[in-house]
Amino acid sequence: MTVLKVEHLTKDYGHNRGVFDVSFSVEKGEVYGFLGPNGAGKTTTIRHIMGFSKPQEGHTYVNGLDSWTNTSEIQKNLGYLPGEIALPESLTGTQFIEMMAKLRGIKDMSRTNYLIEKFELDPSGVMKRMSLGTKRKLAIVTAFMHDPEVLVLDEPTSGLDPIMQNTFIEFIKEEKQRGKTILLSSHIFSEIDATCDRISIIKDGVIISTFVANELRHNERKTFKIEFNIKEEFKNFLEEMEKTKKLNITLVKQHKNQVKIEINDADINNLFDVVSDYDLKFISEIKFTLEDYFMKFYDRNIDSQGVIK
User: What is the pLDDT of residue 306?
Assistant: First the structure.
């Protein structure tokens, strides 16, 4: 059953900004990753799903209801976590939670208390003086306190420390096990890779690739790095491969006596048969990652934490 549907969505802000003919759907119980750097069009798409913005062309639907014409009905059973958090600064966190509980008609606060404890939130302070991380945790609690069936998350771990980022990822896995339908928009590879069933990559407002996450993780094309103990063995190997073409060498590092080999999964035995005749220092597989796949489409820098810059 399709829960979220984006159909030929276009919103052109000029100067190549906006989203252009974006289409995808999220099935019930699925975690769908929306991957791209800041400014790629993720938040614009989400704002249309939430009914905050009217499409120039196309439609967005939640549970079969048009987002623009049925906003209030849709949001009754939807949890939304925005990338930019704006909270009423004069209230304490506790007052804000109480206000949101009243607006949603929540009588039983056990779910809310569970979330407060899980994310180690102290809501007693005035929001004006809260750190970004505390505000993010408060937003998480209030987004999920009514236990919605549909979750729309825009850069959900922005401002959280690494421990809380991991806590959030585990929470999303728990919600998935409970059958929730989740759209997770992010520019952080680890949280997309750890949680998502399918992934779309968006660039300049256009979806350029959509794929099943497990198919990428179990890619049939394998890459191996091989280093030879002595230079002579290394040279002999290169000469043999030049003559026989038995293996596909994709990179040669002369100063390290190293090569990279790309091979199909079904031909791995052939690789080991060939290299068994040589004196090797090591042979190791280089895992193909979501980051590797993403970089085929983007000329971007990735920091040491796996975040798109």
Answer: 52
For tokens 């038995």, name the residue: 246
Q: Residue 309's pLDDT is what?
A: 56
Sign of torsion over alpha carbons 118, 123, 125, 129 = positive
Portion of the chain with pLDDT greater than 70, in percent: 96
Q: Where are the alpha helices (DSSP H) in the chain?
A: 42-49, 71-74, 93-103, 110-118, 132-144, 162-177, 189-195, 213-217, 231-244, 268-275, 290-295
Residue written as token pair 């290299």: 275
pLDDT in tens, 37-70: 888 999 999 999 999 999 999 999 999 999 999 9
Report d(CA 267, CA 270) in Å as an integer: 5
Integer Cα distance of 287 and 276 in angstroms = 22
> What is the reported pTM?
0.81
| Domain 2-217 listed as CATH 3.40.50.300 | yes
Average pLDDT over residues 284-308: 73
Place of tokens 């728990």: 174
Q: Do the domains 2-217 and 221-287 sit in the same CATH topology, yes or no?
A: no
Tell me how far apart the alpha carbons of residues 127 and 70 are, in angstroms, rounded to a whole number: 31
Contact 153, 85 (CB under 8 A): no
Do 125 and 134 contact (CB within 8 A), yes or no? yes
Task: Render pLDDT for 78-125 as a digit per residue (tens, 0 to 9).
Answer: 999 999 888 888 999 999 999 999 999 999 999 999 999 999 999 999
Residue 46 tokens, joined: 């989400």
Sheet of 17-27: strand order equals 17-27, 2-14, 57-62, 65-66
Q: What is the DSSP secondary structure assignment for residue 246, as one 8-state letter?
A: -
- Residue 36 CA to residue 21 CA, distance in Å, equals 16
Domain segments of the chain as ranges: 2-217, 221-287
Per-residue DSSP letter, 187: S
pLDDT in tens, 138-154: 999 999 999 999 999 99
Specify which residues 182 forms β-bridges with: 31, 151
- For domain 221-287, the CATH architecture is 2-Layer Sandwich (3.30)
